[in-house]
Write a structure and sequence with these properties.
Number of strands: 6
Strand content: 25-35%
Number of helices: 2
Order of helices and strands: HEEEEEEH
Structural class: alpha+beta
CATH topology: SH3 type barrels
Number of domains: 1
Distance between the termini: 37 Å
Radius of gyration: 16 Å
Shape: globular
Largest sheet: 6 strands, antiparallel
């Protein structure tokens, strides 16, 4: 499939120059301009190159940790069903987690239930850490040995 990186680059320049950032919170689902990406990274769709994402962890007014959604129920350990989003069954794609700038946020869709977010985060931790036999999180001021 041919990707239109030039068209996305023009949109990305517009987003970069936006002055105001939207207010957002953990558990919210937003249309997010994620763009045209490389290889198997999920792309956005439509004129705004957007895709629904869940805000997993806000860091500050400018960045957050989020997860991309696909608009149907998918099976497999890298997918987690989150229910109806914008009247479509949706699944979180656990292989597509990343840091986002809030300038990418286009429109709030809704908020997922706190129990769904807790279960999603538990499943994500299992995939990222438990299945890979990584050491448990260290407490204190020492340096991490990852």
């Amino acid at each position: 499939m041919k990707k239109d990186f030039d068209k996305w680059n023009e949109r990305k320049k517009q987003l970069h120059n936006v002055g105001e950032r939207p207010h957002y919170h953990e558990r919210e689902v937003w249309w997010c301009s994620i763009g045209v990406n490389l290889g198997n990274e999920l792309d956005g769709t439509g004129k705004q190159h957007d895709r629904p994402i869940i805000v997993i962890r806000p860091f500050n007014t400018e960045t957050f940790f989020g997860i991309s959604l696909v608009g149907r129920n998918r099976k497999g350990k890298y997918y987690f069903p989150v229910g109806k989003i914008d009247d479509r069954d949706a699944s979180a794609n656990l292989s597509q987690v990343r840091i986002y700038d809030t300038k990418r946020l286009v429109k709030k869709i809704g908020t997922i239930d706190s129990n769904i977010l807790n279960d999603l985060c538990t499943h994500l931790k299992t995939i990222l850490f438990v299945e890979n036999n990584l050491p448990p999180q260290r407490r204190g001021r020492g340096r991490s040995h990852m």
